[in-house]
Amino acid sequence: MKRLWSTALCAGLALGIAPLSAQEKTLSDVEVKSDLSAFEKSNALEFWPDLTEDLGKAIAAHVNIDDQAEAPRIVVEINKVAIDGEPVLPDSGAFNQIEGTIAMHPASKAGSNTETDAELPQMGSYALKVSAKAAEGEAPEGWVIIPPSEDDFYNVLINAYAMEVVERIED
Fold it and tell me: What SS3 state is found at 21?
């Protein structure tokens, strides 16, 4: 019986998520925003208007969010969405790269407002780049390679970005 190469890839990704979920971390808040203005004619948000919301949900799926906890909050800013480095996506909307900055801030104070919180000093920040590539070449004996769709790339990139953000949160 032939097996689907993409099924094996998905199963491998799913198995990789389990250990991360078992060590859930707590954050007081997760904010995701995008600023693609540095790239003239970037059209990613025209194709993927829910990108920031989807990334926020993906991060939240791997952490506990407790706004009453003395836990840090993170601000994720997506700066570039591209296909092979090019920020102008084709008519299909396909992309294979996400770049951004993740900033860690002290816990939000219960009842405070975001303007006051924004003045709190950062605890640290880092740049994060995630890229996905389709498998090329011959499939192993008994396997079939099925090229991923744009939705496959979107979901893998969003989840990989979220998992990397969570992985880098210090306990």
Answer: helix
CA angle 90, 92, 94 (to 5 degrees): 75
d(CA 142, CA 126): 43
Structural domain of 94: 24-167
Q: 3-state DSSP call for residue 164?
A: helix
Q: What would the pLDDT profile of 106-147 be if each residue is shown by its tens digit?
A: 886 654 545 555 566 788 899 999 988 776 677 778 777 777
Q: Note the pTM of the prediction, 2 decimals.
A: 0.74
Distance of alpha carbon 90 from alpha carbon 43, whole angstroms: 9
- In a domain? residue 75: yes
Which amino acid is it at 5? W
Q: Are 113 and 70 in contact (CB under 8 A)?
A: no
- The reply to whether 5 falls in a domain is no
Within-domain flag for 2 = no
Q: How far is Cα 27 from Cα 48, in angstroms, rounded to an integer?
A: 26
Q: Please name every residue paired with 87 in a beta bridge, in sequence order, or none if there are none.
A: none
Interval 36-56: pLDDT, tens: 887 878 999 999 999 999 999
> How far, in Å, are 63, 74, 89 from residue 19 at the CA level?
13, 22, 34
Q: Is residue 66 part of a domain?
A: yes
**What tokens appear for 164 in the block?**
């990397």
